[in-house]
Specification:
The chain has seven helices and eight strands. It is of the alpha/beta class and 249 residues long. The chain has a six-stranded mixed sheet, with helices on both faces. A two-stranded antiparallel ribbon has the order 6-7. Helix 5 links the parallel strand 4 and strand 5.
Length: 249
Amino acid sequence: MHLLYVDESGSIADASQRYFVLAGVSVFERTTHWIELALDEVAKKADPVGPDDRELHGSPMRSGKGFWRQFDLATREGFIKEALNAGVMQQKNGVRLFACVVEKAAVAGKDPVHFCFEQLARRFDLFLQRCHTKHHDPQRGIMLFDESSTEKRLQTLAREFKHNGHAFGKTRNYAEVPVFLDSRATRLIQLADLVAYSIFRHFEHADSQYWNMLKDRFDEEGGVKHGFMLCDAAHPVQPPPAAKAPCRR
């Protein structure tokens, strides 16, 4: 099974922020254990005494909140890069990224969470379909989210997309509706947070040090970057690439 760990960055309610990001890390099930171990090593480097209690989250790490206050900015940024390197860059097989980035003003009148979830759910569904039709990989997928106030909303949206469809059709390659996890229980949700935060820093603050590490790891085939979608004033909404083969049921 292909697992898509998803988290968000940016606040819908904060008018001072222009962008909202929903990002996911797609991992084949047999890869999760090794990524967990690699991220544990980063946590252990930061906190040799209690690494299991040390969560890797982008915003508190970079801003120096709580435990991370003891390190200077360069060291904190270094830990973020080490985690991205361990969780994404060193994982040559079975790991790819998905993300939807919206400038909130560009989707005025629409719910950015709904918009981004629709895009991410559809693009991951197309990836699963492509695996099945082009690469003879019958594995299905599931989306795993950090627990949040949007949990009930996303569960409802997922059921609607499966049974009634969305703007681009129906999702047909999922094993189950999204699952919501406590980020303290899994490093992979923490990795999704780091990826979403890295993308947010690039668009919101023109801080591209993390983005430059990740920009070539989005789902891509034939020179087409299926896994990334940007909606802002310069990039109006476009539908995701159409499927080239019938969807399975």
